[in-house]
Design brief:
The protein is an alpha/beta fold. The protein folds into two domains: about 150 residues, Quinone Oxidoreductase, Chain A, domain 1, CATH 3.90.180.10; about 150 residues, 3-Layer(aba) Sandwich (Rossmann fold). It contains nine helices and 15 strands. Strands 3, 4, 5, 6, 7, 14 and 15 form a seven-stranded mixed beta sheet that branches. Strands 10-9-8-11-12-13 form a six-stranded parallel beta sheet, with helices on both faces. α2 crosses α3. The radius of gyration is 20 Å and the shape is globular. The protein binds NADP nicotinamide-adenine-dinucleotide phosphate. The site of NADP nicotinamide-adenine-dinucleotide phosphate (NAP) has 29 residues, from α2 and α3.
């Protein structure tokens, strides 16, 4: 096994990215050195934050480099090892996705327990999106018994988990927004929200006011823009929002103006707090133990949209930005 395939950044997008921004390349795969492992990647994650990494801009995470393989979460099977702590046959998670095989330092990989959950769960409900959801509703904007909670992007990886955990924390009502009637139906029927709101149909603030006539106590923002504005309007005095992501602005080519009702934050004494999951990676063991138990007993329901093969990874990524997924968008690289 010496030939590998990887996806590289071919050009930087202006606005919405397209297939031409990516190229599939065959490369020689090095042998693992002392302390390294060779992994056959079986699953990789595509995530909205990767859009920001396509820009040559300073941010909380380094930009992707032109002509270099992209990076992102992946799981795979160790097929050669020169590291005592990770044997051949182990399943590991790491951040060198976007390629079929990878050689990496054992210290950059984490062995995952496939007895506890499926390998792909470690990229979704038991991975960064799941932990982000958990942090949002337990720590960043903690949900209390009796709260009315609004989650945007509710049919997606973070949103679907955040809504279900909010319910476990005793929320009286959990409302989720998503694009289109099918997704809205799933938000209620598959993910157990009390109500789904189709943000593409009618006025978002009016629909939110119908579903939460007394207002909302907690908002989990995955979308920004019109959703954040509607939520600020609907939040009760001393309400809280966890600002997780602003996908509606990811392709913007100029700075996007803030919510026109931002002064409500003052008058209602609101707390709007951002979160980056990368600050909280030490919480993974605790979170995985808890969420794996929920998965096992059916108390946390998940879905995946699966795209097959590395050559389709760019399409999967472009799809997640346009709403082609329900639950976690994943690429299956090998059937293991
Ligand atoms: P996701 O929700 O599974 O997928 C993205 C979804 O966003 C799409 O399926 C689409 O669903 C929706 N969307 C796209 N454009 C939209 C628009 N203009 N208005 C409203 N909705 C739109 O993705 P995810 O991985 O769970 O991530 C959700 C958000 O959390 C993203 O903003 C991401 O960057 C952020 N995030 C942040 C952290 C952190 O550490 N802060 C960690 C993970 C993720 P519809 O079909 O419903 O429109």
């Amino acid at each position: 096994m010496s030939v590998n395939r990887e996806i590289r950044l071919a050009s930087r997008p202006v606005g919405e990215p397209g297939p031409d921004n990516f190229e599939l390349v065959e490369v020689e795969l090095p042998e693992p050195s002392e302390g390294q492992i060779l992994v056959r990647n079986t699953w990789m994650s595509v995530d909205p934050y990767m859009r920001g990494r396509m820009n040559d801009a300073e941010s909380y995470i380094a930009p992707f480099q032109l002509g270099v393989a992209l990076e992102g979460g992946a799981v795979g099977e160790v097929i050669a090892s020169r590291a005592e702590e990770i044997p051949v046959g182990a399943t590991v998670s790491h951040f060198l996705g976007w390629r079929e095989y990878t050689v990496l330092d054992a210290t950059a990989a984490a062995v995952v327990d496939t007895g506890l959950a499926r390998p792909q769960d470690y990229l979704g409900a038991l991975g960064p999106t799941g932990l982000t959801a958990y942090l949002a509703v337990t720590e960043i904007a903690p949900v209390k018994k009796g709260d009315v909670v609004f989650v945007s992007g509710a049919a997606g990886a973070v949103g679907s988990v955040a809504g279900q955990i909010a319910r476990k924390l005793g929320a009286a009502k959990v409302i989720g927004s998503a694009g289109g009637p099918e997704k809205v139906k799933k938000v209620a029927e598959n993910f157990g929200f009390d109500a789904g709101l189709d943000y593409r149909a009618g006025s978002l603030p009016e629909r939110l006011a119908e579903l939460a006539p007394e207002g909302i106590d907690v908002y989990v923002d995955n979308v920004g823009g019109d959703h954040l504005q509607a939520a600020i309007g609907a939040l009760k005095v001393h309400g809280k929002a966890a600002l997780v992501g602003m996908i509606s602005q990811d392709n913007a080519t100029a700075p996007v103006p803030g919510p026109s009702n931002i002064y409500d934050v003052v008058t209602k004494r609101l707390t709007l707090r951002g979160v980056l999951v990368t600050d909280h990676l030490h919480r993974f063991p605790e979170y995985i133990a808890q969420a794996a138990a929920w998965l096992a007993d059916g108390g946390l329901r998940t879905e995946e949209t699966v795209v097959e093969g590395l050559d389709q990874a760019p399409a999967a990524f472009l799809g997640v930005l346009r709403g082609a997924n329900t639950g976690k968008m994943l690429v299956r690289l090998s059937r293991g």
